Amino acid sequence: MRISSSYFTMLLAIGGLLSGAANAAALQFDISTTVTVADDSYDGPYQVSDTITGTFIVDDDTANGGPGSDPGPGTNPGHEYTSFWEFNGAPYSVNLLDVQEGTSFSSGTQAVVVNDGLAITADDTGGMIPDGTYDWIEILGATTSDYCPLPGGDCSGDPNSILVADGEEWTLAIFATDDSWFTGGGIPQSLPGSYTAFLIGFDFDAVGNEIGVVLAPVDTLTVTAVPVPAAVWLFGSALAGLGWLRRKQTT
């Protein structure tokens, strides 16, 4: 049987789309944790001894990073990083649920801070981990807005002056106990062999002041790949096309 050029072209197109979809992936970080610290100024829904379950979903392909991304090292003192990646809109999101109270936090903005072999002290993390050099990432979600403290409100020439304000920011921080988890500024696609992880929540007022903090060591943490619906659909279409072709060959 001779395959028509138009049908062959269609199959090639499906294959190309399927390949492209396969390269686009999202990672889902599922956590369960218990709040151990909630300072007196924090007025959010999560309190000491509350159990929180949550899901952080982020793209593992830095090529999909948004305009706020910074693939180069950040050198702002106290906020150094190897690279910073920002993903907006579905499916990249943060969802947290207070099991006891039924309250929740959700955010459609996702950012990932990558730190490759960054030396930190116990003071940097409030004593959460000892002095050392670590590979670590922070996965962030927030309902905050930006606030510019400069006169006239123009921070366009000094983006480091922009402060998060008027909302909550929640971070899943994962510290590898050695510095061989990953290299470069890419987003790791799996957990390290051993790690320490924390869920950290910050509450900010309208002018960027931190007015509360919640700390919860992570009890369980798993990472899975999120299926891409388009890839599934295209795969089904390709199979259907191949089945049709096989039937044509046998008639």
Topology:
Blueprint: H1 5-23, E1 26-34, E2 37-38, E3 51-59, E4 83-88, E5 93-98, E6 104-107, E7 109-120, E8 132-142, E9 145-147, E10 163-165, E11 167-176, E12 195-204, E13 210-226, H2 229-250
Antiparallel strand pairs: 1-3, 1-13, 2-13, 3-5, 4-7, 5-6, 7-8, 8-11, 9-10, 11-12, 12-13
Helix pairs in contact: 1-2
Explain this structure:
This protein is of the alpha+beta class. The protein folds into 2 domains: 48 residues; 202 residues, no CATH class. It is 16% helix and 41% strand. The strands form 2 sheets. Strands 1, 2, 3, 4, 5, 6, 7, 8, 11, 12 and 13 form an 11-stranded antiparallel sheet that branches. A hairpin with a 5-residue loop joins strand 5 and strand 6. Helix 1 runs antiparallel to helix 2. The protein is globular and about 50 Å long. The chain starts with a helix and ends with a helix. The N terminus and C terminus are likely disordered.
> How many domain modules?
2
Distance between the termini: 9 Å
**Global mean pLDDT:** 78
Assembly state of the chains shown: single chain
> Sheet with the most strands?
11 strands, antiparallel
User: H/E series, N to C?
Assistant: HEEEEEEEEEEEEEH
Name the helicity range: 10-25%
User: What percentage of the residues does DSSP assign to strands (E)?
Assistant: 35-45%
Q: How many extended strands? A: 13
Query: Which geometry do the CA atoms define?
Result: globular
What is the radius of gyration? Answer: 22 Å
List low-confidence stretches.
1-23, 230-251
